[in-house]
User: What shape does this take?
Amino acid sequence: PGMPRASVYTRIRSLVRSGTLSCIGHGRYVAIRKPRFTVPVTTWMREVNLFLVENFAGINHCITEAAGNLIVEVPKDDIDSIMRALKSKWQKVARRKEAKRFLAPLEGFILIDRLITDAPVSVEDSCPVPSPEKMLVDSICAHNSSQSLFQRIMEIYPVNINRLHRYATRRGVD
Assistant: This one.
């Protein structure tokens, strides 16, 4: 009461950024009692992110580390140019699809994959990383998750259901 509408929205955005509130849908917020989901950012992730930011200003991307490899997701139209640039600095760079064909497990590779348009990405230490919604949907697409794991993650961490459904639809998951 008596507070300008813009001030209310500014305060809400600052509470969301600080982790006190979480957006659970369009215009709906809850006080967070769950720990905020964070992806640990490694030195390797920071280094590759800095390289991408310096050489491809404004590009949307997402970086995560899994099974000893770095997975870098970039827009489909930029995959070839980013691969060439990364290969100029690092030797072990491959497309993620091609890497799946190797019989022996890979380690120490930068694997390039396509970033789905409007994929939910979070920022940790200035590095774009997958949000919990993205990780859940991607694990379903890769057939790496069970229903109990999915439910457990949703119990532990705040998950925006609308964001999850929107990304699942873009990935073609029903």
Q: What stands out?
A: The mean pLDDT is 87. Helices lie at 5-18, 43-55, 79-89, 96-99, 132-141, 147-156, 161-171.
